[in-house]
Design goal:
- The chain has about 280 residues and is of the alpha+beta class.
- It is built from nine helices and 13 strands.
- It has three domains: about 70 residues, Orthogonal Bundle (Arc Repressor Mutant, subunit A), CATH 1.10.10; about 90 residues, Phosphorylase Kinase, domain 1, CATH 3.30.200.20; about 100 residues, Transferase(Phosphotransferase) domain 1 (Transferase(Phosphotransferase), domain 1, Orthogonal Bundle), CATH 1.10.510.
- Helix 7 crosses helix 9 and helix 8 packs across helix 9.
- The radius of gyration is 21 Å and the shape is elongated.
Amino acid sequence: MGISADQIRGLHTYEIRILLILERLMRRYRWVPLDILRRTLGLSESEVSYRLGRLMDAGFVRFDAVPYEGYSLIFQGYDALALISLSKKGTVQALGNLIGEGKEAVVYEALGLSPLALKFHHVGQRSFQTPRVSREYMPEEGHCPWLFASRLSAEREYEALQQLHPAVSVPLPVGINRHTVVMEFVPGATLNRCSLASPRDILHEIIDAVRSAYNAGIIHADLSEYNVMHDGYRCYLIDWPQWVATDHPNAPELLMRDLGNITRYFQRKYRVELPASEAYQLVTG
């Protein structure tokens, strides 16, 4: 179940306070002890119990009784906090439909001064069980719940979009709050859902965009047909949280992997032949 504007409008002031307190205290606790939560709120036991019950029913928080009674903010509650902040700033005026869902993010339509896309980063624990170069921005020590890992992932992507736009065909970054990146809405579909009339031209357009990013010092590091969008006129490279700098020790390998993913896709679906090694030379030469 995704978040809705009605859920946000229906939140009581006390419930928003609870979400904010959980966010702050989860820097110290994976499960915030109920007694500490009550003391921090300064509300009656019955009021706290009622508000926590409503938040659990909404899917914003979770309860555990082992090894002690405690509550944890979960992704939908974190989404709510980001939306409340973005709404107060005037960045987002209306929330639309869910338009994309992947392993580590969900994307909604929204409206601000123009049509927007809201990308909520939902980086789960499984993403960190295998060491990956894409996670080098994570701290090696200390307590970092997955909510805050998601925030770091969003910051990483927003940084890339800021550095790349407008020289590279990426969505215009509009704002960021917590784990949520606000960007221009790009109509169209990802390559795996498109039927291209001029696939050879589109392939070279993508190679040109990869070269422009490379010249800006950035390698996507997770490029495939699933994160290139086509709106009928041009391509956009999306999903940048795993980017690495061109001086990274693994940069050549990651760039070759990106290009191999794209060239194999065009060969497989459209019979457009371009060896990854040749594409690599086009990008770096």
